[in-house]
Amino acid sequence: MTDQGTEPDSTDVVVVGGGPSGCAAAVFTARYGLDTVVFDRGNAAFRRCAYLENYLGFPAGIGVDTFTALMHEHVAEVGADYVADMVVSVERPGDDAGGNASDADARRFVVRTQDDRRVEADYVVAAAWYDGDYLRGLDDDDAMFEEHDHHGEVHEHFDASYADDDGRTPVEGLYVAAPSGERNAQVGIAAGQGGHVARCLIEDRRRERGFPGDLARHYDWLRADTEFQGEWGDRDRWREWFESEVPDDADLDDERLAELRESYIDRAFDTRRTDHEVETAEPRGIRRLVEAIGTERVLDALPDEALADYLDGRELGGVEQ
Ligand SMILES: Cc1cc2nc3c(=O)[nH]c(=O)nc-3n(C[C@H](O)[C@H](O)[C@H](O)COP(=O)(O)OP(=O)(O)OC[C@H]3O[C@@H](n4cnc5c(N)ncnc54)[C@H](O)[C@@H]3O)c2cc1C
């Protein structure tokens, strides 16, 4: 967790909720290069899960605390700030500024927390499954909330259909990864939805910056070096392809189009990984897993014979050296 005082008071993206939906969203926005802060405190569905047996890739399941630690490590690894604090309100004061604020300022959200933090952000991703109250300042209650009869008592709930399937809402810059109805009902799907909503946010941002048509879409892919061999190793071939993808009705001057094209190609080439890079990434990945899980627990999990063989091997290795 980041110490209070060293956190930014201004960021690109605030994610409200550090469960599976929010952490997945933060991994995508931060990897794209957007400064991202995740606030996380309050009612959590995930903490009510006894043990996670159906998340792909963990054949015998994984403990909720261990999985949570891994999610938070991942958020840290991509450079996002994780802050254990609860968001109490999100507002856009620029809406009331009567046209005095510049467009960019007027669009900024002000996020306030239980521990008196105040952070300005261009985008907010709501990812708190049980909570939408903090969003009340952004639109009419009638639009965001629905009434629900529970054993004769009327309750208000954030209306999951306020956002569309991609998490976009009528409030520009506000995205909802949770609550999003049934998509939050399983951890694997909630994580997928968080990532999807973040990709839509990134696409919208790219569109605002001028990327036309499908060129605004962003794919967080890494590609083997071999994919860049032959003609696709040549930037001119990419330039030619980019130009062919620009829709006829794109309204961009040549200079801006060239800037966008070069930044598109830079990003594409950044996804290139050599065999050597992949070979060094894998042991580092395993090491980060072991660190997050804890060396003691990993050693405890080794069958006795395997541990004895390993220690013998190390001793022999020591003698030989
Ligand atoms: C009893 C039970 C058992 C379950 N078992 C399974 C299972 O075995 N397998 C499975 O796939 N799914 C299971 N689920 C579902 C699973 O928990 C959800 O799919 C998943 O947790 C949804 O993730 P989320 O990030 O959308 O929401 P959450 O897990 O609820 O995460 C939201 C996060 O936001 C934080 N938060 C809330 N309000 C605020 C705020 N105002 N400001 C900042 N942070 C806030 C919370 O502290 C929390 O960490 C179970 C659910 C329950 C209730």
Automatic annotation (TrEMBL):
<keyword id="KW-0560">Oxidoreductase</keyword>
<dbReference type="InterPro" id="IPR023753">
    <property type="entry name" value="FAD/NAD-binding_dom"/>
</dbReference>
<protein>
    <submittedName>
        <fullName>Thioredoxin reductase</fullName>
    </submittedName>
</protein>
<keyword id="KW-0285">Flavoprotein</keyword>
<dbReference type="InterPro" id="IPR050097">
    <property type="entry name" value="Ferredoxin-NADP_redctase_2"/>
</dbReference>
<feature type="domain" description="FAD/NAD(P)-binding">
    <location>
        <begin position="12"/>
        <end position="127"/>
    </location>
</feature>
<dbReference type="GO" id="GO:0016491">
    <property type="term" value="F:oxidoreductase activity"/>
</dbReference>
<dbReference type="Pfam" id="PF07992">
    <property type="entry name" value="Pyr_redox_2"/>
</dbReference>
<dbReference type="InterPro" id="IPR036188">
    <property type="entry name" value="FAD/NAD-bd_sf"/>
</dbReference>
